[in-house]
Structures are given as C-alpha cells and as structure tokens.
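Entry:
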Amino acid sequence: MATTRIMPLHTGKGRSVGTAISDILDYVKNPQKTDGGRLITSVGCDSRIADAGFLFSKGQYLSITGRTQENAVIAYHVRQSFRPGEVTPEEANRIGVEFAQRFLKGNNAFIVCTHVDRRHTHNHIIWNSTTLSCDRKFRNFWGSTKAVRNLSDTICVEHQLSIVENPKRHGKSYNKWLGDQAKPGHRELLRAIIDGALEKKPVRADTKEAVALKSSKPGVIITIAREHGSSGKEIGRVVAQRLGIPFYYKEMIALAARESGLNQEFISDIHKNSPDILRDLYLSTRVVQYAVAAQEKIIRKISDNGSCVIVGRAADYVLRNYDNVVRVFIHAPKEYRIGRVMEIYGDSRQEAQRNIHRSDKARAAYYKHISDNRWGDARHYELMVDSSVGIEKTADMLLQYVSQNTNATG
C-alpha cells in the first residue's frame, strides 16, 4: 500500500472558507466513487453536513481565541492506495478509520471516503484543522510525511497487507490534482449559484431577543413532530405546563440564531424557503447547513440541561443517541386539520389545503435531508397520536404514556 504525504488544504484565491471546504468534501464524498455513499465513515462530525460542521468550528475557534489568519489551513488530506484485489472496500475503509483515529488521537473530526471507481481501491482521509474543542489547531510538523507512512505501514502489516518498501517522492498540488480529477457538474454549479444568492441576502443579524436556556430537573425529554394543523405545538405546551418543565419552540430558534449569528427568521424558515424542485439543493447549501449545525447544537444543549418538551426541527433524530427520550408524532385527519388551519390563520378552505400540503411536504423533505429517514414513519417514534380528539385529551394520552414508560415526575 502507498501513502502520500499530508496535504494541507487552503482556501485558495477567489474562494470563501465555506466554498473551499465544500469543494473538498463534495469530491471525496462523490456517490459514484463511494458506492452510493456506502463507503463513507465520519468520526466527530456528521458526514452529510461535515462541511457545515467544519465551518462552524472555525467560527467557534475565532470566538474562543480571537485568532485569525489569511488563507489559513482549513483541513488536511491523506490518500491511501491499496494493491488491486488485496483488500475489500469495506476493509479499506476500516483501515482508513483506524489510521485517522491513531494518528489524530481523538482530537480532530475526520471523514474517510473509500473510492472504488478505479482498479485500485483507495481512501481519502480529510480531517478538520480545528480541534473538537475549538481552541487549538492541528499543526503539521517536520517529518510528518515519514510519520504518516510509518503508521500506515504498521497498520497494513498488522492486517497482513503489502507495503511499498521504497516509495518515490512526487509532488502535485491538491488544487491541480482536484482540477484534473473533478470538473464541477450541473448540480455543483447550481448549488454555487444558490450559495451566491444566499450570501447576498441579509441573513446575518444580531439576535437581541432576551432568551436563555431554562433550568430544569433531570428526567424525560419529549420531542414532538407534527403534521401542519394537528395542534402539535399547542399540545406540547400543555404537556410541558403540566409536567412543570421547559417548552422550546420559538425559543429554540432564537437560541440557534444567537449561536450562529444568523437571522432568526431565516433559521425559522429553513425548511420552507425554497421551491420544491430546488429544495434538496437549497438544504445542501453552506449557509443552510451552517444554520442546521447551530440548531442541532442548541437542541443538544437544551437536552443536556434536563427535562423539556421540544417541538419540531427533527429533534427526535438529533437526540437519537440520548436516553430517556420520548419521540412523539402527532397527526390528524385531513378535514380536522383543514378546520384548525382555517380557524387559527383565517385561511380560506382552498388556502388551508394548499398550506397543509406545502408545509407537510417541506417538513418531510427537511427530515429526510437531516436523517435519511421518512418523516412520520412509526418505526422512528415511541408514540403516534391522533389529535382530532382535542388538545386536552391528546395531552392526557401523552402524559399517561410518559408516566408509565419513563422516570418523569411532575
């Protein structure tokens, strides 16, 4: 197996940090090269929004340290190539992960993408230059090429794979290599156009609203996903009041706005800002992924603070690894929902039908983009509730389930 030197990745001329990170990761994550994305493993970040996570950490680093540097190293890249037929793609990916874990010692988020589009299977290993603590950066060091090669060779020998005894030195800049290998397709060009348009919008603004995490007691975390017009928000508020625990809906959005520096209205409307045909592209843009990363961070902070009720924002998926979470999906017959929307928003019947369809479709697309799961699929929730019996009775059913299946007190 041959391993190249560490390649520091810079922003480059004419690119923002976000664009540079996206360009790098979009190439290595190419589904046509990674067997439909199956051969991608990430540690310390979510591979689907790794560029947003990397970018977010840069902002945190600046906030914590106050240090900035023009055209600083934004990430590092190592390539591993295996002799044809010697290793399966899955094993190659595991070896790449093992290398990154041993070399970085848990300090930096990384992603390993195994490419199978050529005769030889090879890994692209990218790690964030900013540490997970966001207060330091990985520093390339004298002799790093030899250190990388020695560790990689050691792991290969442990896995009974061949190594290159006398590797030849060769040099080629990453930008030239990327330019030779990856010409932007129509999708990438369209994403760039959307990015440019979003960056011209006044999406950044100070969040002056006084909002803070609410103190709470240990216990249950209730997440509520809901169909438009099913009264899920109102039901969640009643449940929180009866349990005596914090309720988060607009408050969560305000906290995410303050965390990210983005406009609160922009974050609130993430899932409905784009026409259907462009929604997937819109959700994959840098500024939206940055907002999503901030939002998910706030959801975890809220949950780390104790018992609460959280409405919307795919919180059930964000907290998938948390214990003592009750994931609820609230639905209702179409006629009931039409009536509720007409009553609350003053819509005509036709407007209510149109808005229900549009809102549900947008929420489903957002959830699919975040989780790769189907919104409203009963397999992902502990409780599916029909709210057409009324707000109070639905809250009663939810509270009964919580009292019988969790350690909640109230």
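DSSP finds 15 helices and eleven strands in the chain.
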